[in-house]
Structures are given as C-alpha cells and as structure tokens.
Amino acid sequence: MTDLFHTRKWLAAAAATFALHAAPAFAQQAATVTVALDWTPNTNHVGLFVAQNKGFYDAHGLDVEILPYTDTSAGTLVANGVADFGVLGSISLFTQGTAGADLVATYAIVQSDTGRLVYSADRADITTPSDLDGMTYGGFGSAWETALIETIIEADGGEGNFETVTLGTSAYQALANGAVDFTLEVSTWEGVQAELEGTAQSAFRYADYGVPDQHTNFIGSSSAYLDANEELAASFIEATYEGYAYAVAHPEEAAEILVEENPDALTNPELVRASMQALIEGDYLKGEDGTIGLIDPEKMQRMGTFLFENGILRDADGDVAEDAPDFSRFYTNRFIEPAL
C-alpha cells in the first residue's frame, strides 16, 4: 500500500482488505489467564514457558501471566480464585479436594511417577526395600510419606518400621553426609542434580513395590472457573498442550527457553538440559504410547483408593474420611481431548 502510483481502485480494495483482517485484532483484547506455580521454575513447567515464548498463547488470543512462586500453595490460590490455573501435586489434589477445596485437574504434566526412594549407592547393607526396616528416613513430615514407605517395605516382605527425621529440603544434604539412611526425591530434578554432582545413588521405584503409579503433577483449575470460562479454558489448555508437545519435540531448545525466561531462578543451564533429557528418555512428558497431557482415569482411581485406604484423606472437619469420595470429580479430560 506504500506504492503511490497504484490506481485509486487498487488502493480502495487494499484498504478494505486491511480493515477486514485488522479490525478484529484491534477490537479484541487478549483475555488474561493467570497461572500459579507449585515451586520455583523448573522443567515440570517447561510447556508453560515454551507456549509463552513461542507465541502459542498469543495465537489463541491469551495474555498468560505466570505468577511468581509463593509460600501459599498453588491449590489454595486456585481454589480461592486468586489464580485461574495452577500446577497441582497429585497428593495435594486428592487431599485438598476431599477436604472441600474446589480443584479440578485439567492436564497431566507427566504420565508416570517421577518420585523414587533413594539411598547412597555405597550402602552395601541396602539391597532391597526390606533392608530399610529400623533405618532412619529424612523427609518432610506428611502422612503420605509414611504410607508410601511402609507399603514399599512391606511389599518386599519387611515390617515397615523406620525412624523419621523431618528435615525439609535439607533431606538431600542429610543423605549425602550420612545423617539419614534414605529419603524421597524427584528423579528428574534432584536425581539429575545428584548425578551431575557425582553423588552416586541407588533407588527403588514406588510402583515396583505396591504403590500405584500416578501422574505426579497436573495443571488444574476450579470447577467454578471452568464452568464460567469454558472456551477460555479450552484455549488455554490447547495452547499449553502445544507448548509441552513442542518441548518434547525440541527438548534442547525448550531447555534454553526455560532458562532464558527465568534467568534469576535457573542459574545452572546444564541441570535444566539434563533434566529435560531425563523427562524425555523416561517417557514422562510423553508416555510410551505417545500420550501427552491426558489424565488416566484408572491411575486416578487407584491412587485415590490407596490414599483413602491408608487414612490420608480427611474431610472438611479434619476427620479421616469415612467414605471414599468420587475421584472422577477431581479431574476432567474435556479440555485436553480436543487438542490431541
């Protein structure tokens, strides 16, 4: 349209065409969606930052704000309407949901459990889970941990007796210096970091010893938000799926994007790259069958039942739940299925 020598007729047609295509862009303002993280930025969040960086959210007419991590859980922020979506841990989804929190998982970040029980590789006295009887566990003080470890030990023929020292995030240092005998870790992050640091570890996978496999974490919202914003939620999940699918197809670039978007939080690019490699090689972000994002109803039922039978689920009054809730109300695939 900058050629002043074109005919007046061409100019009129071009102006009309421009107005036809440009008007919606100017008339429609991008819809804002807020997302709360469950921890400081890491590779579990890679699809969110890739979708933002590559313009997938923009293409869906969304202005997505990834909120800074705070001490208030993402589930609490979502259930109370402070955030539209959040990264929800599997156990917190079941426990908060049973207690009455309005939480609904809408996207499975990983297709199988990234957690594992770990101990120092030089421990000749630990070869099977039953060897952990009478030993000291360094952990985080939750009922889930107790049920998890007891199940693993008992599945191997042990009694499930062990001492617990609540150490929080220092559990990994305590394990390295021998202050505790074993702990739990995320294999795709702490496990990768230990390997990079040359700390030799051995591990037991939960699912190999009687614990149901699970989606370790989700992206979820509240039923109130989803029901009131059906199309907006569908656009957000579709764009988020595109972000994770791109990360699976281009893990090295995705790692670079994650570091680029979070330079203050992610100061070890090698760890991020290695973690992405572990997520890909372990079939976590994309399952062995090629699944990305879809929530497995059988996994949800088995894990929910495990938590209920071990007395971990409590009602709104803080009492152990007498009846198992309808676990299907804690998740939905209606937003991810159209994107697949």
Automatic annotation (TrEMBL):
* Pathway as given in its UniProt record: Cofactor biosynthesis; thiamine diphosphate biosynthesis
Task: Write one Gene Ontology MF term.
Answer: transferase activity
Which residues does the UniProt record annotate as the domain SsuA/THI5-like? Answer: 42-254
Q: Which chemical reaction does it catalyze? A: N(6)-(pyridoxal phosphate)-L-lysyl-[4-amino-5-hydroxymethyl-2-methylpyrimidine phosphate synthase] + L-histidyl-[4-amino-5-hydroxymethyl-2-methylpyrimidine phosphate synthase] + 2 Fe(3+) + 4 H2O = L-lysyl-[4-amino-5-hydroxymethyl-2-methylpyrimidine phosphate synthase] + (2S)-2-amino-5-hydroxy-4-oxopentanoyl-[4-amino-5-hydroxymethyl-2-methylpyrimidine phosphate synthase] + 4-amino-2-methyl-5-(phosphooxymethyl)pyrimidine + 3-oxopropanoate + 2 Fe(2+) + 2 H(+)
Q: Where is the signal peptide?
A: 1-27
Tell me the InterPro entries matching this sequence: NMT1/THI5, SsuA/THI5
List this protein's GO terms for biological process: thiamine biosynthetic process
What keywords appear on the UniProt entry?
A: Iron, Metal-binding, Pyridoxal phosphate, Signal, Thiamine biosynthesis, Transferase
Q: How does the annotation summarize its subunit structure?
A: Homodimer.
What family does the entry list? Belongs to the NMT1/THI5 family.
What is this protein's function per UniProt?
Responsible for the formation of the pyrimidine heterocycle in the thiamine biosynthesis pathway. Catalyzes the formation of hydroxymethylpyrimidine phosphate (HMP-P) from histidine and pyridoxal phosphate (PLP). The protein uses PLP and the active site histidine to form HMP-P, generating an inactive enzyme. The enzyme can only undergo a single turnover, which suggests it is a suicide enzyme.
Name under which the protein is recorded: Thiamine pyrimidine synthase
Originating organism: Devosia pacifica
